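Posting this for the archive.
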Amino acid sequence: MGRGDGSGRVVSPDDADDSGTRILHVDMDAFYASVEVLDDPSLRGKPLIVGGVEGRGVVASASYEARRFGVRAAMSVGQALRLCPSVIVVVPHFERYAALSRQVMDIFHEITPLVEPLSIDEAFLDVSGARRLWGSPGTIAVMLRRRVREQTGLTCSVGVASTKHVAKIASTLSKPDGLLIVSHADTQAFLAARPVRALWGVGPKAAEALEGRGIRLVADVLASPRHVLERALGAATGERVWQLAHGIDPREVDTVHVEKSVGHEETFLEDVSDAIVLRSELRRLSDRVAARLRDGQWEAQTIALKLRYADFTTVSRSVTLPEATNVGQRIGDVAIELLAQLPLDQPVRLVGVRGERLRSTSGGMLALWDDDAEWRAVDEALDGARARFGKAAVTRASILGARRDVNALPTNPRLPPEH
């Protein structure tokens, strides 16, 4: 795989063979950082991170100039500053990222209706039905990259292959601003040269289990009996890895995306010891999670709390509710109850709230008695006010005051559906 800083970049020649392909994986390049450069061209060519200020936040995105110093997303800003003292830290502007993401997704839908958004900055496209209108998959990929650049000023990397799995690997290898096409006939040879960590579902532990048996490349997987893989990884994972190594991936592009969770977390400017302050911040986060659930027309059956102490120990607790909810008061009550189960024997650096096991609010049966009816009415009024006057127009009195957080981006940002 590429090293993440663009140094391992592999791209296809103009006359690359795209026979047997139909899937495109499109990934925007260092999306948040690239948007900041787009809005402030003086940042171009400089090491840049999007994240919290004063070294306490988490890196949400890093430019390729910063990545060459070892800076990566999800590391602390403090660590990024140590690796690259000259790096420029920019606070995130999520609404701007969301607006450009919407524009990019619209471009995808102009080419094919078969679009599966994976996150705010990447998607799978099935272009098998678009060939007569736009040309071969490779031609479509070239056109798509040109349209994205011309209409948004941003660059993207595209992998073209016969399966989703191989298209994803190809787009990663081609970053930044590249196109890599893997024909159906070349699939097995392409995969054989990759490290086992490139295979979908092979995380650090699975990779260690395989590498400990001398299985380091996909070629080694191809040479290994199935029972060896199953003994190392378990029956289900071993079978999946064997299939992927052989280029077998039956997954289709799914235009009906089912969210797995919606969450928000924040890192404090200063570690917090006061339980009252923590409860207040959990209210703030719970209201934001609830608003995103309502925007997406979801309810959460499970509510989870994440807590990171000053020594970076991270713990989580969750509870499954009798009835799913998207009511801010209810989510906040549960989060605070979960907080009460955890010791506060040292200050807290980060808190997060997440709604899991989501289900659609449309088509569900109404309960005969709604314990949250009054709070639901309050949320509806708040949603209306925020839609008219902005998201910061109305908030709880208990959470008024100076911001205590340095990062307030969603933990898994996706766009709400169009209404």
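The chain has a mean pLDDT of 87. The chain is about 35% helix and 20% strand.
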